[in-house]
Structure formats: structure tokens, C-alpha cells
Amino acid sequence: MSRSSGKKTAKNADPHHIREAKKYANPIPSREFILQHLASAGVPMAQQELASQLALHNDDDLEALRRRLNAMERDGQVVRNRNGALCIVNSKDLIAGRVIGHPDGFGFLRPDEGGEDLFVSPRQMRQLLHNDRAVVRVVGLDRRGRKEAAVVEVLERGNQLVVGRLYMDQGVGFVVPDNKRLHQDIVIPEDNFNDAGHGQMVVAEIVQQPTKRTQPIGRIKDVLGEHMAPGMETDVAIRTHQLPLEWPDEVQQEIAHLGREVDEGAKQGRVDLRHLPLVTIDGADARDFDDAVYCEAKPKGWRLLVCIADVSSYVKPGSALDREAKLRGNSVYFPDRVIPMLPEVLSNGLCSLNPAVDRLCMTCELYVNKEGVVTRSRFFEAVMRSQARLTYDQVAEMLIEGDPELCTTHAELLPHLHQLYALFQVLRVARSELGAIDFDTTETRILFNQEHKVERIVPVVRNDAHRLIEECMLAANVAAARFLLRKKLPALYRNHDGPQAEKLLDLKEFLGEMGLRLPGGEKPQTRDYAELLDQVRDRPDSHLIQTVLLRSLSQAVYSAENQGHFGLSFAAYTHFTSPIRRYPDLIVHRAIRHLLKGGTLEDFDYSQTELQGLGEHCSATERRADEATRDVTSWLKCEYMMDKIGEEFVGIITSVTSFGIFVELDEIYVDGLVHITALDNDYYHFDPVGHRLTGERSGMVYRLGDQVKIQVAAVNLDDRKIDFTLVEAVGAKAKSRRRKKAASEPAGETKPRDSAGKNGKKPASSRAAASAVKDKKPVSRKQGDKPTGRKRRGPGKRGKSKAE
Question: Which secondary structure element, helix H or strand E, spans residue 501, and what is its range?
Fold first, then answer.
């Protein structure tokens, strides 16, 4: 066989050759084909041998192969042994993943392919930092029965810059990272201080990563300023979590030609919806509008149009703008500012569905019958013109309160809004009948004074207008998922697993103590959770039960494979409705557009492997944004409480641990710890299943959901911790006896009582229990990182994804 014919055969054998040829002028075999070839060989293979077998001989091909193999090595798909031969990384022998550090010095490796995290001992963590990527091998089980890992190779360092506070001691400095998951201090030699002073917040560049024997060594790159400077909390969070802030020059060049109006040529060939009274409904402080809705009555139900900003028309795959949007993954909403995923010319301009201007959109058309079932749906490209920018409060005042002034102002839109409201009511009933878990939350917002200090923390009240938009967005997201599945095109799905076996066992044991039972056996369904929630709705401890049910659930993630959404009770679900602020939505738009243009699986821009990687990346950026905003909120709450030391407040126990109880204060929504040593003079036993501490001598019980009175004892801004001392446990002993009695009653035999509690006020713990499934977080010991489930939002961020 000649060289040319061999090369052609190798390319023809690659099932992804068409995709590679579309991307590259001189394509080589795809990653999938290379992995398949290495697997068939069954032994480690030298790069030169692999090139020969793939019939790659000229310099360009060999260079392309070298780059591809290096990229595969960085991504943890292959690893080189001591002889330099290529080995496949697999779940049996070698496991690639991301390192999750712990403040106490140990860590975990989260496998790229999913599955159970591996424990990384403090000894192995000496050479690693949080967010590094590594290949490990399983060396056994630790004392708690977890798989334990040993580091084979560090694939990628996740920390080049570290934000922290500089301390100096006898000519040597060290930076204590603000991110407590970075368990090692950064050593700063005296000649690398760069004019930074003791106690200042700085950015340190790591010049020597940690090894088995040495700490990381760095130099001061930037001085952020004094510890308590206004706005410092957000500046620190941005750098601590390495959030991209500035737009690269390449991006600036790509967007330089964009104006304020849509080009006439871009409107051609689209369905014209400009005559319809489409409206946007958002929060009063929103600045980017990525969805508009319209509804009209039909003989058998309704026709609903959900128009979403057509970001994919402006952000092309492979462009600098696309690379930056992918890197960011999502917009990040802080209490005082927003870091957008897209430049303002797009996010607030061309892509935003602003009123009275033409905009490109991707439209989901839904026909819904009177039972709330979607009978038909389709997607198409359109051009629209929003007729009004409405707020949630305005819509609620028109539809529910009948505000005469607003009704007169928007008289032409009112009939369509009433149809939207009627549709919302049947959609919500239909979703409830499916068994969806519906937690209604009280979210909070931080208000600042002119000196940028926290003035107060207020609840954000949700109304039916919020829920109306949520139902429309949920319906469109489900339709998008079904469309992609029907066409068998890979995309990114929003998956949410049911409870894991261990959590389910703990949950059932807890419910048994309460005289309750979760239906569904070993694999309960969403409906079983919903039925139990409905059953306990009138119990005085319903907020406690809701909290425990919520904590038994997993966190929602993005994935290339559809696994359904447990919390929403959808067999298939994706994110389609917010491409301005979420990269997964942009990927879904590209997939839908590809199908509308007659594209097939073979010529789609993304492979299944690439999409899986994108899903993991977007899940990680989502967690990163959550952690960054939580850090800022925790800092601000600590700062807010610094002048309240010695004051007394009433609150609700939101978490019980072996070392104390976390309490959330009523009205001001601040969390703090009552350490076990600050409780009554007694020995306390921790019951993790019952979520309680019980006094050995006194019998005093402190349980999740109990009301207590506390005094603010101390505030530590560096560690984001607030310490309380207990003043009074309201009726703790009486509650203990009542619950023992309740535990002996048959399932379902409960004493009804107004769940709102005294004076008709809903308990704070009920507010804490209600949460979006996606916002479930593990227990953390830092202020603001307790598992209350509440999601704080910054300016401009809406609650449309709350149920997701």
C-alpha cells in the first residue's frame, strides 16, 4: 500500500472525518479514532509508532498529531509512561479529574468521567492545590471506606495567581489565600514584596508550584489595597475565583463593527413577528432582556410564543468572542455589580430584546390544550419588536390587583396578558400533577448606602408574575430537549439525579423518627417527594421536614447525555432560554439552528466527547460563580454585623453539626455559629440522622428548625465567621417531648396546625428550606455557606431559573 492510499484509508475509517475536515484545512484522525486505535493495540504505544500506523508522515501531519496528543494529555484522555509511550486513561487503572481542596489539608479528586469522588490524603495533597487537574491511581480504601488516590501526574495547574492577605515575619512574607480551599500559604521571599505592606490584600503570582517537599513560592504582582476598603470584597472574589474581567483585544476587534441596530440583511429569511404584542417581563433592575412572550387563545387551548435572543447569530463557533464566552461560562451577579458573559454591546444592546427596536430571535412556538399539555411545538428563526418592557410587579398589579392606571396605560397588551395568566394557571396545575417538587423561596437582596456599606438586607418577594414567566420558560426548555432527542442530535442537557442510596437511607431513618414514610421503596420518584411534602404541609415541623428532604437531593449539572430532571419531574430537560448569560443555552441554540438548516449528526460542529467536556466545564463555571457570590455575600454580612456585637436576636437553627448549631437570624437573614462549648453546661451528643444535639444530663434538645434567641459574640471578617452565644432556647424541652410522641404515632396521623406559626408569620427555616434544586450546596463552615438552600441574587439577575 502506498503512503497516500494508506492515509486515505485511515481517514475513511475515522467516523468523524467529515467533522474534522470542516474544522481543519488539513485534517488528521479525530481524538475518538486515536483513542479507539490505542485501545485496539492493547499496549502503550510510542508517538512515532502511532503516526506510522495512522499513515501520518509529512511534517504538517506530524505537527498536528503532536499538538492533538498534547491536548489529549492536558485533558486527561491519555498519559505518557516513563518511556514516553502513550497510555489510555480509563476508570479502571488511571483516573483523570479535578482536585477539590479542603481547608484541613486533604482533598478529593472529581473524575472527569463522573462517578464517585476519590479521597486524596494530606500527604498526597502536598504537591497539589485546589482546582489542579491530575491523573491518579486507586491505592485502596481509607478508614471511612472511600477510595483513596495516589498522584500519578499533574496535568494542569489551576492556580497561577492567588489572592490573599500578606503577613511578614522576620524578613519573610507569606500570603494566606482568601480561598480557604487553598490549604497552603504562598511563601514570598523578601525581594519579591513589590512594595506591599503587612496586612494588605494582594495578588501573588506562583513562580514555583508545590512539590512533595516544598510549599508554593511566589511574588507579589498587585496590591489591591487595605483590608476594609469599600468594594474590596468583590475585587477579592473576582481574583480569588479567577473570574475573567477584562475583554481581550481580539474580542474588542471582533465587536468593533457592531452598532445599535440589526442589519437589514440579517432579518431576511426569518419569520416576521413584529406585528405581535410581544413583551418582556423582568425584574425592575434588569438590564439584559433575553426572553419575550406572547399568548393567544385557541379553540382547544392556547398558542404560546417564547422568543429568545438569537445570540448564536452574533457569536460564531471558534471566534475570539466564542472562546471568551466559553471561558466565562455564565454571567456572574454580585450584590454591587455584574460580570457579563458577553460584551455590553451584545448583552445590553444587539442581543437584548429592548422595547421598540427590531431584534433577531429564536422562537419556540407551543400549542397547549386546556389540560396544560403541550400538543405541538416547533422552533424557527424570527425577527421581533418588543412592545413593552414590563416588570414583575407591574404585571402582578395589573393581573391580580387590577391597578387602573397601569391597565389604562397597557390597555392593548392587557388581553394577551390575561391569556398568559390563564395559561400559567393550567400549566402549573399540570406540572403539579406530574409530581414536580415546588419549593417557594424567599430570596434576599443587599442594599448599600452612599459609602458602599451595607445598609440593610431585605427579602425579595415573589409573586405570580415571576411564576408565570417560569412556567413559560420551563415549557420552552422541555420542548427544546424533546426536539433535540427526537432528531438524535447531541447537545447539553440539564440533568438532576434522584437521591443517592446513602442519603436516602439517612432520610428514611429520619422520617421514621417523625412517624412518616417516603413512598417509592429504594427508588422514590419525584411524585413521592411531592406527596410527602403535601402530607406534612400543615404540620408545625413542616419546615424541618422540607429542609431534610431538600438536602437529600443532588445538584443539577450539564451533560451531553440526557438523564432527566428529578426535581422538575421531566424526562428530558435543557437550558434554552438564557443564551445572553449562560453558555449551555448558546450551545443548544446552535444545535437547533443546525437542525433548522438541514444539518445532520455527521456535520455538526460538536462531538459527543466535546459536548461532555463542555458540560463539565459549564457546571464548573456555574459552581465557581456560586462560590464567588457566596463569598462576597458572606463578607458583606460579616461587615454588617461588626457593629452589632453584644446585641440579641431571634433566629432559627438551619444546620446542626457535631461542633455546634448554625442559626439564621430572623428579618436580617444572617447566619452564625453557636459553638457546642457555648451551649448549656452539659455533654451533648450529635445525631446526624435526627439533625439534633441532645444534652446527656439535662435532656435539652437543639434541633434543625428550632427557634432560639442568641447574642452576637464575635465577627471574624478574614474567615467569614460569625459567632453567637445562646441566650434562650424557645421551648426546647417541650419540643423534645412532643417529637417523641409524634415519632410513636402511625404514619400520616398528625395534628394539623397552621404552618405559618404565630401571628401568621412563616418561620424563617421554612424560607431557608425552600430552594431551587440547582442551588444545593454541600455543608461549609464559613459564614453564608450553610445548607439553607437560599440563593442570593445581584442586580439584574432574575428568578426564572429558580425551579431549575
Answer: helix 501-513
In what side-by-side order are the strands of the sheet with 301-309? 271-272, 374-385, 358-369, 301-309, 291-298, 279-282, 388-391
Instruction: Say whether pLDDT at 11 is over 70.
Output: no
Tell me, yes or no, whether 370 and 442 share the same domain. Answer: yes
Could you say which of 156, 175, 195 is where a domain stops? 156
In the numeric block, which cell numbers belong to residue 721?
A: 465567621
Whether this prediction's pTM lies above 0.85 is answered by no
* Residue 334 forms part of a structural domain: yes
| Cell, residue 19 | 467533522
C-alpha cell at 596: 433548522
Cα–Cα separations (whole angstroms), residue 428 to 372, 421, 438, 465, 679:
8, 11, 10, 13, 45
Contact 695, 683 (CB under 8 A): yes
pLDDT value, residue 74: 76
Residue 757 has pLDDT above 90, yes or no: no
Q: Look-up: residue for cell 453564608?
A: 784
More confident residue, 756 or 335: 335
Is 287 a domain residue? yes
The band of 762, judged by pLDDT with boundaries at 50, 70 and 90, is very low
Residue 534 belongs to a domain: no
Q: Which residues span the domain enclosing 114?
A: 95-156
> What CATH number did the domain enclosing 84 receive?
1.10.10
Distance CA 646, CA 244 (A): 40
Reported residue count of the chain is 804
Same domain, 307 and 441: yes
SS3 668: coil
Are both 136 and 168 inside the same structural domain?
Answer: no
User: Nearest to residue 2, comparing CAs of 727, 618, 10?
Assistant: 10
- pLDDT tens digits, 161-175: 999 999 998 778 999
CB 571: neighbour CB atoms within 10 A? 13
Q: How many CB atoms lie within 10 A of CB 366?
A: 23
In a domain, 35, yes or no: yes
| Domain limit, last residue, from 486, 509, 536 | 486
Pick the closest to residue 340 from 290, 283, 395, 281 (CA basis): 290
Quote the pLDDT of residue 778: 32
Shared domain check, 370 and 457: yes
Q: Is residue 599 scored above 80 in pLDDT?
A: yes
